[in-house]
Specification:
By secondary structure, the chain is of the alpha+beta class. The chain has a 5-stranded mixed beta sheet with strand order 2-1-10-5-6. Strands 3, 4, 7, 8 and 9 form a 5-stranded antiparallel beta sheet that branches. The longest helix is centred in the first third of the chain and has 31 residues. The protein starts with a helix and ends with a strand. Bound molecules: the ligand Nc1nc2c(c(=O)[nH]1)N[C@H]1C(S)=C(S)[C@@H](COP(=O)(O)O)O[C@H]1N2 and molybdenum atom. The site of ligand MTE has 18 residues, from loops.
């Protein structure tokens, strides 16, 4: 391409090149310093989350729910590209202004990285972005200085371009590799789990209905859903891990991981589910957890009168509020260290997390937990409750048709219909299913080990040719049947009955 447009494109590209150099250098510096949260992309992402105006945040949370991370990264990438191109264009006729623009953006970001993004942040967190900014300035200066009259070099600079891009990519790669050194997989492999003092009730043989295509009663760990705000998974070394229990207590406690493992452990089957699970959704999983009962720990600390909330904090600064009365009402709230017989995977909260049966994860299931503050809802708010989600969020009764799949084509005759229902800590007492507008029929319920897991159901359908809608609804242990009224997950969980449409020939 030639002419004015071609020059402009080249100028914008020069800006992008400077940005690549800045990011690559910054990632490398973060790796050398061992500060994952100070890496430019991570710091920008976190600052972006913190600085987004409330209306935009509300929109993003309503629209993308808890799965806004990819949207965030794409938006961030677009934002960086736009700013970099703009600086390149500015530098085309006014090199000094371009350099100044890049300098201001860079130092601003560095300041944010140090001040805003994480409770553990400090001045050293500014270093990677500042180093990156210097590299970006050098590249931009070289580009704008090499040709007279502010012209940006075209394809003649191809070698320089390739070298810059290669160095930036190598820097970013090396940085991430160095951060990987903080890897706790060896420490995780070395954890020796204590035997449970209090075993789980055996899972009844029929808990898994014998219908092909049904999900497993116990979710394999590798298939377990993951929801969190972590842009980089916290790697917490169990040797450094401490749990502080403080706030409105008579005797603040500090536990090491060894102290935790030495406590009497309970083993329980508990289904965890996410508030942003939509009708028919799969943001739920059932696992066998091993952990120290949380109520006993709190009683040792001596909870003071007037407290109504536990504010838990994770190693990466996430906060979750849990109603204290729920944790103390006798249910199996656990400070869990293992999932399905193995130490928690890093993505599920290694070395320790909370699990409270009957509450959505955002008010109960803190991963990488390091701090429990006994407090009051009037005093402290948590990450999601500050954003309008409910403080009290018991899991709503949910049921799903898993088999047949939506839009399945079936042969007329006997067809197995089956699915999963849950109402943790209230239990599922009945599941009914319906074809079209026909009568509701009772499904057969599989046995369960207790009130805190999901429950599979199955039925036989004498399918006749045509297009049919299969619908399901569950009744919980309090006798309440799932309403047909549809509600979105915000602010305390979705409602509505799940249905699938199938064709019978
Ligand atoms: N530290 C931390 N813990 C967290 C979250 C988080 O963002 N950060 N998300 C919560 C939410 S919303 C859910 S649904 C569960 C999901 O747990 P899982 O990823 O192990 O399935 O974790 C909870 N614990
Ligand atoms: Mo969630």
């Amino acid at each position: 391409m030639t002419g004015e447009r071609g020059h402009r494109g080249a100028a914008a590209f020069g800006g992008l090149l400077a940005a690549a150099a800045a990011l690559g250098t910054g990632e490398l510096a973060a790796g050398l310093l061992g500060r994952a949260n100070a890496a430019p992309l991570t710091a920008l992402g976190a600052a972006f989350i913190d600085l987004t105006p409330v209306w935009l945040k509300d929109f993003a949370i309503r629209t993308f729910g808890f799965h806004d991370k990819l949207v965030l990264l794409l938006g961030l990438g677009a934002g960086i590209a736009a700013a970099a191109s703009g600086i390149g264009l500015l530098a085309r006729h006014r090199p000094l202004w371009g350099l100044a623009g890049l300098g201001v953006l860079g130092t601003g970001t560095a300041g944010l990285a140090a001040a805003l993004t994480r409770p553990t942040a400090g001045p050293p967190d500014a270093v990677p972005v500042l180093a990156g900014t210097l590299a970006g300035l050098a590249v931009l200066a070289a580009i704008t200085g090499t040709v007279p009259a502010g012209r940006i070099p075209g394809p003649s600079g191809r070698r320089g371009v390739l070298i810059t891009l290669g160095a930036a990519a190598a820097g970013a790669g090396a940085g991430r590799l160095l951060l990987g050194r903080g890897d706790v997989s060896a420490a995780r492999a070395g954890v020796r789990l204590p035997p449970p003092a209090d075993r789980a009730r055996p899972v009844p043989a029929g808990a898994q209905v014998r219908v092909p295509g049904m999900p497993a009663f116990r979710t394999p760990t590798r298939d377990f859903y993951r929801v969190d705000t972590a842009l980089v998974l916290p790697e917490v070394d169990p040797r450094d891990w401490r749990l502080r229990v403080h706030g409105m207590v008579d005797r603040p406690v500090e536990l090491t991981f060894e102290d935790l493992l030495a406590r009497p452990m309970a083993e329980r089957d508990i289904t965890l589910s996410c508030v942003s699970n939509e009708v028919g959704g799969t943001l739920a999983g059932n696992a066998r957890w091993l952990g120290a009962p949380l109520a006993a720990l709190l009683r040792e600390a001596g909870v003071r009168a007037g407290a109504d909330q536990i504010l838990s904090r994770s190693a990466d600064g996430m906060t979750i509020s849990t109603p204290l009365d729920v944790v103390l009402d006798g249910r199996d709230a656990l400070l869990a260290v293992a999932m399905n017989g193995e130490p928690l995977p890093v993505r599920h909260g290694f070395p320790a997390r909370l699990v409270v049966p009957g509450l959505y994860g955002y008010v109960s299931a803190t991963k990488w937990v390091v701090d429990l503050k006994v407090t009051r809802f009037a005093t402290d708010q948590a990450y999601w409750t500050r954003r309008g989600y409910a403080e009290r969020a018991p899991v709503k009764t949910f049921s799903r048709v898993d088999v047949p799949r939506p839009f399945a084509r079936l042969r007329a005759g006997r067809v197995a219909v089956a699915g999963t229902a849950w109402a943790q800590h209230r239990g599922v007492d009945a599941v009914e299913w319906q074809v079209g507008d026909g009568p509701w029929r009772q499904a057969e319920l599989a046995p369960v080990p207790g009130l805190d897991t999901w429950r599979q159901w199955a039925a036989e359908w004498d399918a006749t040719p045509g297009s049919h809608t299969l619908r399901v609804r569950a009744t919980d242990g309090t006798g309440t049947t799932q309403p047909s009224a549809r509600a979105r997950p915000f602010p305390d969980g979705a409602t509505g009955q799940h249905s699938v449409v199938v064709t019978v020939t």
